Amino acid sequence: MDTRLGEYLRARRELLRPQDVGLPEQGRRRVPGLRREELAMLAGISSDYYLRLEQGRDQNPSEQVLESIARALQLDQEATAHLHALARPHVRKKPARKVEKASEGIRQLVMSWTDTPAYVQSRLHDVLVANPMATALCPSYREGVNMLREAFLNPAVRAMYRRDWDAILAGTVAGLRALVGPDVDDPALAELVGELSVRSEEFRRLWARHDVRRRTSGVSYLMHPMVGELDLRHEKLAVTGADGQILVVYHAEPDSRSAQALSLLRAL
Predict the structure, then answer these.
(1) CA 39 – CA 173 distance, rounded (Å)
(2) pLDDT (tens digit, 9 = 90+) per residue, 113-151?
(3) Distances 30 to 27, 42, 147, 238, 266 between C-alpha atoms, Å
(4) 35 to each of 48, 76, 189, how far by Cα in Å?
(5) Residue 95: inside a domain
(6) pLDDT in tens, 47-61
(7) Same domain, yes or no, for 67 and 188?
(8) This prediction's pTM
(9) Residue 112 resides in a domain
(10) DSSP 3-state helix, strand, coil percentages of the chain (rounded to 5)?
């Protein structure tokens, strides 16, 4: 019995409160979130049918039913697409596990950027290649390191960020969900999630939310031990044909104090 769809529905239902969907609060609730029958009513389906979906006893909901449930759960476009993917998993024969690598062309490109911190990570957030500027920016940006483990288990990484740390952690976990899609039974993913769930209560809580959100560009507010404060834009670019690999590039506003600090970091 495939329960991935049911786990997602239950997680998202438990995040909604009655007042979020215009329902009156009726006394104390034993469990958080909406009741199944409330969600079913909002989606316009029977409570029994919705229960079968959550329990994994119905594996073939229609597109209309999925769209109705997505609206009832107030899912955005990306989360709705994830819902459809869970309901229509692409069955594929898993290849033998092997060490993932960045292509030689991508490796040469990253290493040619002597002034710009850049690295490539796998869909499970393993660093596949990092140039010297990236490693100088953050010692965790080096080949073979898993950035999820670093974020949740290495206090030195947390200390680098001047702000937005909780949002960064939540976005990292949601980004992992987006990259792996319905393929949550991948052995390597299961091993990573199992380890982090045991070692980090924060990861366990965020993973249980089933948030799905691709991470793209933004600004990182860093405190570097040698050059001080850095406000750096980061771009996350998909490496085509590389099964979820992401090229991460940091850059500063021209002529800014952060640009001067990056130049000093390169010199050091």
Answers:
(1) 26
(2) 999 999 999 999 999 999 999 999 999 999 999 999 999
(3) 10, 21, 37, 43, 57
(4) 13, 21, 31
(5) no
(6) 999 998 988 888 789
(7) no
(8) 0.78
(9) yes
(10) 50, 15, 40
